[in-house]
Amino acid sequence: EICVAPCRLCSAVCEPINEGMRKACSSQFILLVVAALALNIPPVYWSFQALPFSQCKGSQWLLVDMLLCLSNITAAVYLAINTQDITEAVSALLYDKFMALYILICVGFFAWLCIGVSWSSQGLIAGDNCHENTSKMVSDSLWCGFFYFFVGGSALMLSLCVSWCRGKKSSSYKSGTTSTPTARKEDYVPPYVANAV
After folding, report:
1. pLDDT at 152 (0 to 100)
2. How much is the pLDDT for 67?
3. In a domain, 15, yes or no
4. pLDDT in tens, 122-144
5. Is residue 128 part of a domain?
6. 28, 158 in Cβ contact below 8 A?
7. Residue at 171 is within a domain
8. CA nearest 77: which of 128, 23, 123, 125?
9. Global pTM value
10. Which structural domain range is residue 62 located in?
């Protein structure tokens, strides 16, 4: 019994993670998840590097940026796991309380990026008690953040289009409105061929 307990614990932890990742990877929002991971994990990593320098204004900016980046990743995975078609996706974006909160967080994220640009241009990011690469980490985080707004927004729109197309295709198959191809006439000659002869 003692030997089996660690395996059961591991299974209890890994099973929901595995199921969530399976849903996320098979979702039409996988592009959004990939964009969120690719553009938000580096700023989180840089924030951890700057954590020991808590008196530094740049480190404080990176800490808040890390929380906002983690919310971007969480929202992308949440949307991918909890939506299967266009109706659920639109419902989640318009009516879900978590997504409504996330939209407000996005507004705050954009404002925080603008504050970072302002602090950087005023030279307030790096001081005497900062990590030697603080200004570079903040600059790179700013690039990732603004790029995420473009790439993440594009991935969201593309995912919604894919979801809409998948919904149209499956609904036409379900309703039986697909048309069968018409029989081809053997003596038919296309107009451009008839004119050439």
Report:
1. 93
2. 96
3. no
4. 888 877 677 788 889 999 999 99
5. yes
6. no
7. no
8. 23
9. 0.75
10. 31-166
